[in-house]
Protein 1
Amino acid sequence: MVAEPLPDELHRPPHRPGADPRRAPWTLMYHSVDHYEEDPYLLTVTPERFVRQMRWLRRRGLRGVGIAELLAAHAAGRAADLVGLTFDDGYADFETQALPVLRAHGFTASVYVVADRLGRHNTWDPGGPRKRLLTADQVRAVAAAGMEIGSHSLVHTTLTELPADRLTAETARSREVLEEVVGGPVTGFCYPYGTVDQRVADAVRAAGYDYACAIGHSPLTGRYALPRCYVGDRDGGWRLHAKRARHLARSLRAAVRPRGAGGGRG
């Protein structure tokens, strides 16, 4: 990670009271929702646990939404009762396991898919079980159900290690592919492995995306490096409460820190 902070605001409209650009809204990061026998990368949440987690949010007056909707509400100062829900990699189990639960709770989410791997498997995880990815038809069905579709690059590789031409393909070309699939704009990007530096963030912005998701808080935190909170199968109510409190504390520290000051990665 580079030491220079990204100057981008969390919202493009003029600043409004209650929407400090350094106070990123709370966003949860999921991958797969399914039953499993092995999960070496801790990417999978069982359907039963996922239901309990969504119930926990609703009981606390929180509504899960996709990131585009979350950012628009944040810019307007209306995001207090919202939480971002994101699903990386575009696993096929999203349609069968996660989507029905989200719809039952009146929630939406952002699903970040690997544009050149639709209908294939997660070959970028050599030490884990093979998981099937959403097909193009399934991506369209998920979008039709009200979910936001975003890009998780073209082939799921570490973008900071790529030369300029390949970086352009992973960002701009993946957007073109997905817009053809869904028949509409794709405005969100999610960095594979959460890895981002200034050059990569600039490339994502130049490719025409409106925002991008990272993972931890960092000097780059902003609209093109939104922090997210990892959620796993061990996360019950108390752990979610602690993670939310930690996020709020970090956001408050960022809000009182002078602009341009650095911060540590979460």
Protein 2
Amino acid sequence: MNYIKNFFRFYLNPSKEYNKPFSIKQKLIGCIILLVITFVALFIFEVIVPVILVSSGLFDNWPRIKNPSVNHNLISALSVAFFIPIIEELVGRLWIVYNRKYLSWSLSIASGIIIYKLFGSNLNLPWYENYRWLSISILESISIFYFIKSKNQNSLERFWKNNQRKIILLSAVLFSILHYRHYEISLEIILLLPLVFAFYFTSGLILGYARVRYGFIYCCILHILYNSLLLSIKYVS
């Protein structure tokens, strides 16, 4: 089976896509191939495109990535390599395959994170305020989970099945937008948003395909492998 052709057919020509159930071996091979495609996309959009545009004089500078404030220790490395990818997949891609529980989990976790980020993650707050907002965000997440789970969602299920690829595109766009925090915000980056976020959009499509065709666990494995390898390269360099 041609894994690369199947990936492109999924988005461009679904009628010719091989969509029979995959074996575990096929899923693992597919993840490795998608990982290679992701790094190729990274090289194209983060190296070749900026070099061409800057050297040609079309742009004076390329938007800079912020200096990471993360300490170079085992805990922070494990967080970037394992914890963050799983959270991002729970929030950003668990729900693209419709299931009432999946949708409940994704929205509840996302809403809890947003509330805590907005009100409870300020380092200047007293420790008890941080824990208070953490508790509120957890309770709010649990409430949303059971609220969504209790609703009749037949119409949503039909909508998901009829618009599967559009939903993946939406998740890829959201994945791209949420990575704005990696860059120093300026007028330049606003003008270059489509080019700057092209890699994140592409990787969102790759992860979305893995989520739909291979399953959530393999999507997480792919994301963890990418982050781990990228982190290893950064530490070595």
